[in-house]
Amino acid sequence: MKFGRQLELNANPDWLDHYIAYSRLKKITYQEERTAAEHLSTHGTDAEVPESLKKSEAFREGLEQELVRIVSFYESTETELFERVDQLLRRCRDERIRREQEADEKEETLAFPIWWEGAWSETLELPRTQHQSQSRTLARLSEHDEEIRVETASITSDREIHFQHSGYASAATSVFELSDDDELIDEARQLFIALSELERYVELNRTGFEKILKKHDKVRETSLRKWFMDGRVGSMRPFQRVSLNALRLRTLRVEIAHGFAANIDNQRKNAALLRRHLRERITISRNTVWRDMINRERMVSTVDVAEQADIEAAMDRPRREITLFGRSFLVPNVPRSILLGVPCLVIFIVLLCVETFSTLPERRCFALLVFASLFWAFEVIPLFATSMLIPLLVVVLGVLRDADGHQLPAPIATKTVFGSMFTPVIMLLLGGFAIAAAFSKYHIARRIAAVVLSKAGTRPPVVLLANLLVAAFLSMWISNVAAPVLCFSLLEPVLRSLPASSNYGKSLVLGIALASNVGGMMSPISSPQNMIALDIMKPAVSWGEWFAVALPVACISLAIVWILLMLVYRPHRENAANIAMRRHDEPFGWRQYFIIVVTVATVILWCVESQIKDYVGDMGVLAIIPLACFFGTGLLTKEDFNNFLWTVIMLAMGGIALGQAVNSSGLLKTIAELISEMEEGFSLWAVLAVFALLMMVVATFVSHTVAALVILPVVNEVGNSLPDQHARLLVMVCVLICSGAMGLPVSGFPNMTAIMLEDSMGRNYLRTLDFIKVGVPATFFATVTAVSVGYGILLALGF
After folding, report:
1. So what's the pLDDT on residue 349?
2. DSSP reduced 3-state for 342
3. Higher confidence at residue 312 or residue 429?
4. Above 60 in pLDDT, residue 289?
5. Which pLDDT does position 466 carry in this prediction?
6. Burial class for 725, CB neighbours closer than 10 Å (0-12, 13-18, 19+)
7. Is there a contact between 209 and 63 (Cβ–Cβ < 8 Å)?
C-alpha cells in the first residue's frame, strides 16, 4: 500500500488537515522532473539546467511550509494537552487526600498500590523497555514500506513502572468500597487517547518526510534526505527525543491516574483496559475513513462482478427501449451471460441428441468438447469455472472407456478423471509460480531490469529496444502475466514526462505487450500454453531443445516487432523528454543470492532432465526444489502461496481432464483420421501450414490458453497419424504460434494489461486500432518465422 493511502487510513480524522501534504509534495517532485526533462528536450542534453531546478527550490519551499505548519499544530496541541494533564493530576491529589481523610475518620488503614504514586511522584521515570519498544516502532515505520496498521501495541506497550522506591505495598485493605469518580476516569481516558494520538501524529509525519524525501532523491537524483531530516526535522521540537520523552511521561502519568481514579490495583489490567478504550476509539473514529477507502477499492474490483451486476440490472430494468427504422421498441434486457449461455446450452443438448459419430461415447464427448469450447471462447462464465464443470460432465455423460472399449462405471471414471488432472505439468506450473513470486517479492526482477534499462540512455529507438528485450526476458522467467505489470511500473518515469497522445509513449506500452507475448514462447514456464504443450508431447521436450527452437524464433520476432513499431510510430522523430531509467544501487542480500542460486540450479536440472530421468522421473519432480526451498526457509509465506494464479492452474487441470475424455472416448482418434483423410497427399510442411493458420486465427480472437487446450490435442493426434509421426514438431510449432498471436487486445494477458493502462488523466494509452496496426502484422511475421525457421530447426533436431 502506498504511503499516501496509509496516511489517509491512519490519520486522526479530526486532525486530517494538519498532517503532511504528502500528495502535494509528490506532485511538486514530478512537476520538477517534467520541467527538467522538457528543458533538456528543448535545449539539448548539454544545456545547463536552471539553478532553481538544480536546487529543487519549489520542493524545498514546500517542505519548509509543511514543517512549519506541523510544528505549529504540535506545539499548540501539546500545550493544551499538558495543561489538561496537570489539572487531572491536581484533581487526583485532591481525591487522594479526600480518601485518606475518609479512612482516618473511620479509623481504618488505607494502603495504596505503590505504582499509583507515579501520578504525582516527582521521581517518575520512563521504563527502559518502553524506550526500546517505541524506538523499534519508529525505526520500523521509517525504514520499511509495510502497511501501517492501527495496532495499539505499537502505540502503548505494557508498562512496567520502575520507581526509585524499592518496596511494593499490598493492595488496599480497607473494608469499605470506594466509589469510582466517573468524571476523573473519563478525563483520564480522553487524555490517554489524545496523547497517544499526538505521538502517532509525530510518527506519521516523520515517516512522511522520510518517504517523500527518499522519493524526491530517487526521482531528481539529489541528496536532500539526510540534510533535511537531520538539519531541519531533527532540530524541531516535535521530533526531538526530549519532547518525545516528555509526551510519553505525561501519557504514563495519565495511565497511572486512570488506575487510581478507577481504583484498579493491578497495573497490567489497567493498561489493558486503556488500550481497549484506545482501540475502540480508533475503530469508531476511523470507521468512516476505512469505509470510504474500501468503497474506492471496490470500484476496482467491479470488473470481477460485472456479470452479477448485469443480472441485477436486468432485474431492476426488465425492458429497455431501442430505436429501429425510426420506431421505438421495448425489448427484454437480458444479461450477457444468459444471452450467450442459453444458445450454448441449446447447442449442447442438440448435439447430445444428434447422431454425429458412430458410438455413444464419441457423440457425447463431441457435445462436451463443443460446449466447453463455446463457454471458453465467449467467456459465458469465468474460464476456470468452465474447467471445473468438465470433470462433472465427463463422469455424468459416461464418455470414458476402458482398453476394451467398454464404458467405465461412474466410480472408476471419477478416480480416472481426477487422477489425470494432477500431472507433473501442474507441479511444473507451481514451481514456475514459486520462482516468479520470489523474484517479484524480493525485487530481483525489478533490479535486473532497472540495471539493463539504465544503460539504454535516452535515445527513443535504443530505449524501445531495451524495453522489448527486458520484457521478453522477464516473461521467460516470471511468466508473461507478471512481466508486463513489472515493466509498466519501471516505465512510469518516462511515461509521466511525455505529453498526452505521445507516439513514443504508445510505442513503449505496445512494445512491452507484444514483447511479453513473444517472451511467452521462450521457456516452458513462460506461459500456460507451453505447459499444456509439454503435457501433450510424448516424450516431453527438454529445456535445452525448447531453447534451441524458441530462442531463434523469439529473437527474430522481437526484431520484427521493433521494426514495425519504429515504422508505425516513428519515436525517433518525436521531441521526447530525456528521462533515463534509474538503476537501483541497493546491493543484493543473502536472500536474493539464495533465490538466484536455487533458480539457476533448478533450470540447469530441467535442462538436463533427459539425462537424469532414471533418477528424477520428470521435470515436475524437480519443480518441488524451488517450492521446498522458498517456502521451507520462510522466504515465501502462505499468503504468497494463496496468491498463486490458481485460476490458471484450474484452467489447465480442466483442459487436461477434457483431453483425457477426448482421448479415452475415441473421439480424438476419429477426428484425427478424418483430418488425415482430408490432408492425404499433403507434405509435412503443408499440414503444418494448415494448422499454423488455424492456430494463428483462433489464438488471436480467444485466449491463448483456450486455443492451446482445444487445438493442440488434435494437432498431436494428426501428427501421430502421419507416416513418420511428427506430432512433436507440429505441436511445438503451433504452441510458438499460439504465443505469437497478438493482433487484438483480447489476444493474451499482456495485451489485456496494456489496453487497460491509463495516464495520470485517466486516458488509455492504446486503442484497438494500435493493436491492429502493429499486432496483426507482427502476428503474421511471427507465424511465418515459426513455420520456416522453427520448422527447420526442429527437423535438424530430429523431431
Report:
1. 92
2. helix
3. 429
4. no
5. 86
6. exposed
7. yes
Distance linking the first and last C-alpha atoms of the chain: 50
Distance between CA atoms of 174 and 66, rounded to whole angstroms?
Answer: 55
Cα distance between residue 497 and residue 556, in whole Å: 31
Q: How far apart are CA 252 and CA 153, in angstroms?
A: 15
Cell of 541: 521436450
* pLDDT given at position 301: 38
Cell numbers standing for residue 150: 492501527
Q: Which three cell numbers stand for residue 84?
A: 489538561
- For 87-93, what is the mean pLDDT? 82
Which residues lie closer than 8 Å to 492 by C-beta, 6 or more apart? none
C-beta neighbour count of 784 within 10 angstroms? 17
Half-sphere exposure of 96 (CA within 13 A, CB side): 18
Q: Which three cell numbers stand for residue 196?
A: 497517544
- DSSP states of 196-214: HHHHHHHHHHHHHHHHHHH
Looking from the CA of 474 toward its CB, the CA atoms found within 13 Å total 34
Q: DSSP 3-state helix, strand, coil percentages of the chain (rounded to 5)?
A: 75, 0, 25
Residue 56 has pLDDT above 50, yes or no: yes
Specify whether the CB–CB gap between 77 and 237 falls below 8 A.
no
β strands within 210-351, DSSP E? 319-324, 327-332
Across residues 3-10, what is the average pLDDT? Answer: 73
User: Is 323 in a helix, a strand, or coil?
Assistant: strand
**Using CA atoms in the order 301, 302, 307, 309, what is the torsion angle rounded to 10 degrees?**
140
What distance in Å separates the CA atoms of residue 205 and residue 68, rounded to the nearest whole number?
A: 12
pLDDT more than 90, % of the chain: 13
Q: What does the block give as the cell for 549?
A: 527452437
Is there a contact between 470 and 476 (Cβ–Cβ < 8 Å)?
no
CA angle at 792 for the pair 786 and 796, rounded to the nearest 5°: 135
Helices 543-569 & 460-497 angle (0-180, nearest 10): 70
Angle formed by the axes of helices 383-397 and 410-421, to 10°? Answer: 150
- Give residue-wise pLDDT tens across range 293-324: 444 343 333 333 344 444 444 444 555 566 66
In this structure, are strands 319-324 and 327-332 parallel, antiparallel, or unpaired? Answer: antiparallel
* Separation of alpha carbons 391 and 77, rounded Å: 66
Whole-number Cα distances in Å, 26 to 173, 223, 255, 402:
61, 16, 39, 67
Rounded-to-integer distance, Cα 470 and Cα 453, Å: 8
What is the band of 787 on the pLDDT scale with cuts at 50, 70, 90?
A: very high
Q: Is-contact 520 549, C-beta < 8 A? A: no
Cell numbers 532523491 correspond to 217
Check residue 578 and give its pLDDT.
47
